[in-house]
UniProtKB/TrEMBL annotation, chains A, B:
GO terms for biological process: 'de novo' L-methionine biosynthetic process; diaminopimelate biosynthetic process; isoleucine biosynthetic process; lysine biosynthetic process via diaminopimelate; threonine biosynthetic process. Residues 6-121 form the Semialdehyde dehydrogenase NAD-binding domain. SMART domains: Semialdhyde_dh. The lineage of its organism: Bacteria, Bacillati, Bacillota, Bacilli, Bacillales. NADP(+) binds at residues 13-16, 41-42, 160-161, 323. InterPro entries: Asp_semialdehyde_DH, Asp_semialdehyde_DH_beta, NAD(P)-bd_dom_sf, Semialdehyde_DH_NAD-bd, Semialdhyde_DH_dimer_dom. This is Aspartate-semialdehyde dehydrogenase. Phosphate binds at residue 101. Its EC number is 1.2.1.11. Catalyzes the NADPH-dependent formation of L-aspartate-semialdehyde (L-ASA) by the reductive dephosphorylation of L-aspartyl-4-phosphate.
Length: 346, 346
């Protein structure tokens, strides 16, 4: 990493954008110039990078001149409008929105799982959905060793995945409820939909809008993105995505049916050597992953590893990771690092 | 229900005991005399029944003289010591603890599912575990119509299931965290174990102690009790039991594989006509069960009903119920009603 780069962060004032800037700094990414961008509403604000204030500029096509890498986290609409503009001006876009994830021309990349795919980009690389990333990091070593026939997963997703306003709503409604008051929710489960439900001391079995098959868009992301990342259109995924009153850290109860039979000690073996995975599994001393402990950590934590009681090839896992880091900002910066190291810039 | 009965509630000052007394009153159970009982520590306190204060007496063998029905909810140790004493003195015991659930001589009863089994008692009837009750109520109509091969279930369990002190801990630690403070947990996940984890804005993948197979006792209850209640030792159950920061109302993401193929409209049909079940499933208007809405309701709510994307006999459900009512107090009183109506007293 000798070359020094101009790096844009689009959505720099949002929850994930801020984490992207922090991660660039913490990982000592070779940034010559940081260009924080946001909508006109937030332009003029400033962000801190390496101890200095950097002014946020408006995200618009001309702003991408001279940018080498553009990390986008400003929603699908902005990505659809501006990613091609950035790419046309020579930047490689790493996009955290859902805009291009299922585009066959766009690689969908988790570096520990399919890093090589990133090098086949045509200017845009997609960052998968948070709930998918942590699951495939945990499952990839099992997939490689034993094969995977199917996955049944229930999620316990943190509120920060729905943005900073949703976190404020969690805090406000929880505080009110503790003093015996109630106020109607306005953001969760989906801010753009008409009906809202309070997340305070509650769980919401809806993340994103519903599709015709009864699954939500979030659930279908887990189905389709897992297939694309593992490059296996046969793999069966059954998700139930649920929001819980946790600020940061998604948890997942994952049931897997392998193709080949396995011994539990070999599952431990492959997971303990897997990149990006930390095995935290000691029932005797009550050690298992929990969101409160994984906040701020970049790895994917796996525990409660146990053989199914009935199915001979059934395996159960409990997978937890920081949804803003490995689920978003950290994964995006890892992709940028991979491009630098392997000559994937333009 | 003409005969008027003497009804003891053991553990009368606890969370479930109080709900039992409320339920006896609300359901107009034919109580002539209510005998609230508790440990010597709580004896002398009083509880309210039909607008009057009733003094709590110490739970001890002689106190059961003349008692027709004794509802126990004071933990397995108390049940083991006192249930046989109560039964010996002519009471029918309905026990909410785990003490006798797997005893082949003791019926394990959910009235909507296997009510008839109650009549075969020898003085003691067991009330199943809360997480099992709501699942079997939702699955029984599906089991009867299509058969069930296997169940994979992830739970989102409320803190009140761990008792009043655990609820206090949730409240206190949440309040502290909102003001930026932390204090170590002392109760959850299992008060008698050495390690405690804060439930505030967190989820705990442990309910009850671990067994050698890597599953918790709570999870094994779901396996074994489901088999006993459905009288089907072949049925495969894979549970992951998780505590979430909710006060009351357990939620469950349930995947079922039926034996016979099914049409989704027939699943709706059998569920809509099933006793004790309320179907709440309208994605277009964002209607689905949530713990905040089911508190205080005696039914089991089912939503997010959808066909699996891969397995032709796979069915997904989201099941929510008040863990203190149908999961405990209400189910116990229903059993008492069944005994009165069908001549099951001694």
């Amino acid at each position: 990493m000798t070359e020094e780069l101009t790096v844009a962060v689009v959505g720099a004032t949002g929850a994930v954008g801020r984490k992207m800037i922090e991660t660039l700094e913490a990982r000592r990414f070779p940034v010559k110039t940081l260009v924080p961008m946001a909508s006109s509403r937030s332009a003029g604000k400033s962000v801190t990078f390496r101890g200095e204030n950097v002014t946020v500029v408006e995200a618009q096509p001309e702003a991408f001149k001279g940018v080498d890498i553009a990390l986008f986290s400003a929603g699908a609409k902005t990505s659809r409008a501006l990613s091609p503009e950035a790419a046309r001006r020579g930047a490689v876009v790493i996009d955290n929105s859902s805009a291009f994830r299922m585009d066959p021309e766009v690689p969908l990349v988790v570096p520990e799982v399919n890093g090589r795919a990133a090098l086949g980009h045509h200017g845009i690389i997609a960052n998968p959905n948070c709930s998918t990333i942590q699951m495939v990091v945990a499952l990839k070593p099992i997939y490689d060793r034993f094969g995977i026939e199917r996955i049944i997963v229930s999620t316990y997703q943190a509120v920060s995945g729905a943005g900073a306003r949703a976190v404020e709503e969690l805090m406000t409604l929880t505080r009110l409820q503790l003093s015996g008051e109630k106020r109607p929710a306005e953001i969760l489960p989906v801010s753009s939909l008409p009906v809202h439900h309070s997340i305070a001391f509650n769980v919401l079995p809806q993340i994103d809008v519903f599709e015709d098959n009864g699954f939500t868009k979030e659930e279908m992301k887990m189905v389709n993105e897992t297939r694309k990342i593992l490059d296996d259109p046969e793999i069966l995924v059954t998700p139930t995505c649920v929001r819980v009153p946790v600020v940061t850290g998604h948890s997942e109860a994952v049931y897997v049916e392998t193709k080949e039979p396995f011994e539990l000690e070999d599952v431990y073996g492959v997971l303990e050597h897997a990149p990006g995975v930390v095995v935290l599994d000691d029932p005797a001393s009550q050690k298992y992953p929990m969101p409160a402990d994984t906040e701020g950590r970049p790895e994917v934590f796996v525990g409660r590893i146990r053989k199914d009681l009935g199915h001979p090839r059934g395996l159960n896992l409990w997978v937890v990771s920081d949804n803003l880091l490995k689920g978003a900002a950290y994964n995006a910066v890892q992709i940028a690092e991979l491009l630098v190291e392997q000559g994937g810039l333009r």
